[in-house]
Amino acid sequence: MEPLDALVADELATPVDPRVAALAAAIAQRHGAASRAVLFYGSCLRESQLDGLMLDFYLIVSDYRAAYPQRWLAAANRLIPPNVFPFAAGGLTAKYAVLSEADFARLASGATRGVSVWARFAQPARLAWSANAIARRRAIAAVAGAAPALLAAARPMLPDGIDRLDLWRQAFALTYAAELRAERKQRAASVVDADPARYAAFTAPALAAAGLGARIADGAVHLAPIGSEARAAGARLWARRRREGKALTLLRLAKASATFAGGIDYLAWKINRHAGTAIKIRPWQRRFPLLGALSLLPRLIGGGAVR
Question: What pLDDT does 67 receive?
């Protein structure tokens, strides 16, 4: 096993709260034999008190048609992945996104411009449930592609010499800017600062897996120099990621209005929690959640709550 794969396997195998494991198993049961793995990720990983929080999961399935009795849900998941659903069990509430094994492996890798999946799984995660050893190995392999994808994509925007933790902070900052996000500007740095030893340990193997020549000494990373043309091409690519990523966020929001009951209340809760705002949802916005969510955007963007 490659060094990065070993690190990812150990991290994913870290035990979770028994209630989280039970919730993951219940999510898998909801989709029957199609379920392959359930990954627990996000800020709730760092919380010991889970009551009142919205936990984040990814459900990995063998095939969309097998995962849903309704064909339109399978088609929606295939066309604009992932589908997102609310879930509650055992006194905990959650949302989970659904991806096929093939889509998860692709979207967690450098094979896609979209940052959504590889940005999230370059961060810590737990394999809270798996169908069998084969599903577990496939989940590990997919997650192991995320950190190299992040660093390879970020490389043209980084200086040749950089502090080991700033490497990750700046890389995550690029991804946060490529989606419509409610988090504050410091959010990318706080992700790294919450577990600096983890990112220090991941640096060398992730750079090697990304094919980036680097020397690490005294906490600093010295990257193989790249030219101005490569940097300019990288800047153009990140500009494209920002345009496409924010448009894709709106498409996913539109789709979620059909799959996520109470989604607009969750949206308001998340924005208030991360951006320090005091948004209150009106009755008409609950009746027409897509229009309600879209009606919030100009004020949120203008006020800097969503960037």
Answer: 98
What are the φ and ψ backbone dihedral angles of 181, each rounded to 5 degrees?
-120, 145
∠ at Cα 81 (76, 84), nearest 5°? Answer: 80
Evaluate the CA torsion angle 181, 4, 6, 196 in order and state its sign.
negative
In DSSP terms, 64 is beta-bridged to none
Burial class (CB in 10 A: 0-12, 13-18, 19+), 50: middle
Q: Are residues 103 and 138 in the same domain?
A: yes
- The rounded distance, in Å, linking the Cα atoms of 281 and 169 is 33
The answer to whether residue 306 is domain-embedded is yes
DSSP 225: P
Residue positions counted in the chain: 307
Structural domain span for residue 230 = 149-237
The pTM of this model reads: 0.86
Encoding tokens for residue 21? 């494991």
Q: Which two tokens stand for residue 298?
A: 């100009």
Tell me the per-residue pLDDT of 133-180, one tens digit each, with 9 for 90 and over.
Answer: 999 999 999 999 999 999 999 999 999 999 999 999 999 999 999 987
Domain check: are 57 and 114 in the same one?
yes
Nearest to 85 by CA among 234, 260, 279: 260
Same domain as 166, residue 140: no
Task: Provide the number of structural domains found in the chain.
Answer: 3
